[in-house]
Design goal:
Length: 531
Amino acid sequence: MGADAEPQERDLREYVRVLRRRKPVLVLSALVVMGAALFGSLVQTPVYASTAEVLRQANTSRSIFQNASGAYVDPTRAIQTEIRVLESQPIREAAHAKLGYAAKIKATSVGQTDVIAVRAEDTSAQRSADIANAFARAYIDYRRTQAIDDVLSQVTEVGKKINDLKRQIDAAPQGQVKDSLIEQQALFQNRLDQLQVDASLQTGGAELVNAAEVPETPARPRPARNAAIGLILGVLFGIGVALMLDYLDDSIKTKEEFERAVPNLPVLAMIPAVGGWKTKDEAKVVSIIEPSSVAAEAYRTLRTSIQFLGVDRPLRALHVTSANAEEGKTTTLANLGVALARAGARVVIVCSDLRRPRIHEMFGLTNRVGFTSVLLGEVSLAQALQKVPGVERLYLLASGPLPPNPSELLQSRRAAEAFDHLKADGNFILIDSPPILPVTDGLVLAKRVDGTVMVCAASRTGRKEFARAVEMLAQVDAPVIGAVLNGVTEETGYGYKYRYYAADQPANSNGSTVSTNGSRAKAKRRIRGRK
């Protein structure tokens, strides 16, 4: 793979940017899942748990007749066997008889020890302790009874052996045989005495080391723990949803995504998101009302980019458009006009949007007379031009009354003559038009200009739509010089931030700042971000 090959996988920073863009999804998902977990915990009936611990030991009391070197017994296997015994039917029946009601327990080994934990759960704290203790004591009693029965069985067998030896002694003549039988009888008598002692001391090898106590708090539900788990699961779920939504989202959100969608079209500027204008009351040009703002500086960056592009070829007439409506083309054109005029150029903004003209509203001007009035011969160009208040060298040619046939009118000879006349006067012409995809007006105008600037709205314009608009412009040989990524946020703009050291100083007509003593000083700025 070559050094210039674009990586196919997203890096960690891009995933972080996706999550920042989808922050509402993450927050909503976390709150919903956590709330559901908390609500479920609060409506559940509390369940209490109590545990008794039983020590299981092998019987260490051996007599002289017992073989101390018995077969090896696996401790793990032995303790698991005792657990099965504790959970067996005889123990359950004995425990139920003590309690007076049926209950269940769970027996487990405690680590690598011979201790068995007897855990009982119940909606009553007292009953949970009673159940655990009842099963533990039933098991101990069972093992003790079993051990005693085993010893008594041995006592019976030894007693029989002693009686047999006594009969043999009585029948045997004096001599070595009789003496041997008497010695054997004495040994078995000692064994009988030991077994009788064992029977009295027999515990069965099981004892209660920790009795179950009445719990003060329920074992479940635990609202705080469940809420924390719900929060974690909600965040994980939200991350999955955010990544899925981003994958399904076709809109262009970042400069990198734009370059992947249209590889050969340069991005001339990235305009930060500002309060736009959707109604007449909100119509504004940020370069006029806030000349030291971040957005105004971004439009001056666009102006500079266009000026550099005009070094090798003339760019006196520019067409600003977009793929679809409401993507910021008119706002971009108006602010670009202000930036060019304040840089010393004589700029004429021509509203060729003969369907939904609004740029005159942004400057607070009228639309009674304009471009269509000139084409109809009602007024001259000079009479139709309106001076933009507050900005020197900036003029507006409004659309004028709307015609029934906009596309045909824009293709007319008189429209071409009007544009040629404006360019002949040395003006910098900025042409506003309808978007490319809905109607053909923009394609008609693109053939009459020196360059077309496409506006792409971040997180709004689709990749396929924008690429299709550029393709349509290429089909009519329109000179598309670059694009503007509009509405960039901190998340979609990869952290591009403009900060001014002299932002609080008033701006003059060419965009520089004026210090308090009247001297001219360029606005210092710091651009922080990563490309």
